[in-house]
Amino acid sequence: MDFISINNLKGIGEKTAGLYNKLGIFSYEDLLYYFPRDYMEYSEPKSVSMSEPGEIVAIKAKVVKRPLMRRAGKLQIVSAMLQTDSDVITAVWFHMPYLTKSLHPGEEYIFRGLLEVKGSSYHFEQPVIFDTEKYEALLNTLQPIYPLTKGITNQAITKSVKTLMSDSRYKYLELKCPDEKRDEVFEAIEEIHFPKNFDSLVKARKYLVYDEFFLFILRLRLLRNDNERLKNNFNIIPTAYTKRLIESLPYELTGAQKKVFAEIEDDLCKDTSMSRLVQGDVGSGKTVIAILAAIQVCMSGYQTALMAPTEILATQHFESIVKMFNEYNIPIKPVLLTGSMSAARKREVYAQIESGEAGIVIGTHALIQSKVIYKNLALVITDEQHRFGVRQRETLTMKNELDNPHVLVMSATPIPRTLAIIMYGDLDISVIDEVPARRLPIKNCVVNTDYRNTAYNFILKEVKAGHQAYIICPLVEESEGLEAEDVVNYTEKLKGAFPADVNIAFLHGKMKQDEKNRVMDAFYRNDVNILVSTTVVEVGVNVPNATVMLVENADRFGLSQLHQLRGRIGRGDMQSYCIFMSGKQNKTVMTRLETLNKSNDGFFIASEDMKLRGPGDLFGLRQSGDMRFKLGDVFNDAEILKEAADDVTKLLKEDPELNKPEHSYLKKELNRQKDSVVVL
Ligand code: ADP
Ligand code: MG
């Protein structure tokens, strides 16, 4: 059956369909494979004394008297006093004026929410209210929590999935599996959306993770077959320019950097074409390695393309390369090519690339669009590879069909070597396992929001000393409730807390590209002292003069992501400081953040993160942005990953072209994925 558009589903009008599209849901099948990011467990109501403040709990309590409504500006606040067996809890709700009528004094309900202590009394903000009987029915079930976008509620998605499952066409939908497994897969998918219990959820998840990995690895392997052991078509030789640059840099390369560059220098001269992954933690100095490789290639008369995942990073690479080449008299012309450039400027750059005038072409994925014709492209470098989609990799392979350029991939993702081989099995691996010697380890602390003013004072002190600071707030789009700080509002407030001569600017993903570049540029030049930003600065950004980072709502980020963010500081010789601030002070959050406090080592953090994540946080790292699979997690599911990899090897031995009829579903699925951008 062909794919059925989501617009056909009962209850979904044009507007809702648009919102679903924003979530990447275009068809019935997409909705079916739109898995919850977490689950809410309806546990036995607890007594207050058994609960820890900072925990989400369900508590049975009586409403003491009629709830009151008051207004504070635009806010409508309903407050009520709740009486349990032993304690009194105050509760407030926002924008729910009807509660004054629907909550009956003297009656018992179940209230579920985050229990906090305020002063000497217990406090609930916005708890969900249940009839005791209704709650009884939900008891010990797991309810799905879906990733959302503004305008769509969790309930709406839950309802849509239920509607889909009762649609007459449901059983005929295309699944990513062979025919004989359809029943099992349907069962697993239903379990993922609406688990019967925790054990069956874990089983279903494993089942689907295997399928997800299997398809992913198969896709990578099929790409690789095309570019395996290809001949080196270029005549590249080592050049004195790299040696001279290394000697004139203001710092000495670390032993690891020297070793890795020696490997690359060698690769470029071999009979076969280079495919190499350089892994190194944030701040280990990968960029200069990329530049050295590019110089070697360009001085032999060929071109290099350097791709970065964001325009901000591409622009920064371009500027630092221009500066470096001027300073050290390196006769290579770098050009920048990004999506936001004017059409006229793009045409100019295209011409310089085609004529060979441009030696190094730096940009985003605009670089690999078919409009770009190179004179003689011999090296393709991807920075922060884990941010690129399979699509880009595919396009690279297409380029390979032309001339087979050397490929160099840079990544900070700290994945175990065995996993790296599965994920990037087609690549040789170099590791930069050493940070520059003079660098001081970042000093960290984990604090609650009471510390905010102290933190501001500290930042002010650093700014007065000529340094700069980042303040990280959660994504504008992701801000879900009153808790999340919004970048723009935050900046306004922040300006009030600092003297007028401190320049504060903000940066977030929704801004126009040239606006982003302008702000980043100002920060780079130290015209901006404090940059309030979402995670858009997460990868690659390099402003060594920044010495403080304050992360608001640190509990909302994954540990590996926090480590990447923190990598933006501590890049120069000065002492740097990272402050993780969290309103939530419960034990789990604190233990997680303490890991960051203890260590600046990405590999250690990733492995600790895995250990700390109990079953309740089954889907933790998946949210963090590295390696984004729908369900799978390359750390936690390493076993499954390996099993899937072995099975792919077996399959390709038996049926390398996937011509057997029982494999037609794979061919179909791979073709379908070709049309959609998959983000790793
Ligand atoms: P990453 O590996 O995260 O991409 P970068 O290549 O951006 O790191 O390097 C981070 C900072 O360290 C840059 O300011 C760079 O100039 C500097 N750097 C690189 N190598 C060394 C070194 N051997 N000694 C001192 N500083 C270095
Ligand atoms: Mg980098």
Task: Describe this protein's structure.
The chain has 680 residues and is α/β, with parallel strands linked by helices. 38% of the residues lie in helices and 18% in strands. The chain contains 22 helices and 22 strands. The strands form four sheets. It has a seven-stranded parallel sheet, with helices on both faces. A six-stranded parallel sheet has the order 17-22-21-18-20-19, with helices on both faces. α12 links the parallel β12 and β13. α7 (198-227) packs across α21 (638-654). It is globular, with a radius of gyration of 27 Å. The model is unreliable at 477-484, 614-627 and 675-680 (pLDDT under 50). The protein binds adenosine-5'-diphosphate and magnesium ion. The site of adenosine-5'-diphosphate (ADP) has 18 residues, from α10. Adenosine-5'-diphosphate binds at residues 251, 253-254, 257, 280, 282-288, 412, 436, 540, 542, 544, 571.
Task: Write a concise synopsis of the structure shown.
The relative contact order is 0.10. Helix content is about 40%, strand content about 20%. The protein contains 22 helices and 22 strands.
